[in-house]
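Our platform keeps sequence and structure together, in a single record for each protein. Such a record has a labelled line for the sequence and another for the backbone structure tokens. Nothing more is needed to write down the fold, since each code stands for a local backbone conformation. For reference, a complete record is included directly beneath this paragraph:
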Amino acid sequence: MDHTFLLEPGRWTLQGSWLERNGILISVKGMTLVAWNRDNWFTMATKLIFPGSDLADIALQYKGRMDRGNRQYNFLLQHNLLGQIEGEGWIGIDTIVQRYWVLSDRERRSGFETLHRINHDTYYLTSGIMVGHYLSSTMEANIERQRVN
């Protein structure tokens, strides 16, 4: 597989915009760290900040397992605002798609992320969080791999 995001350890920066229902576009910046261990387990930690806004920072801690050569995986996610989350991911030729759902949530919140590969060092992310059947927020961002010197 030609993907570098998620499938290889690395450090990635994120820059884009966040849109809440009935809100204005807000700038978002972030960092993602991806690590793998020998047993095909990955961890991914992401922090999002909203410069010049009163939105709270978002911290995400993923843990998942993917067998080599498999195009589907499951993960657990700890989200500082939404709580415990379960999800699944699919690896396509040019995209990585993740879907998740918040556990024990009366609001039935869920979400999705699509990472479209531009090249080995750049992806374009679109994501959304839903409450029931309605979008509550979306994000669009460029994600770039940081080279280790």
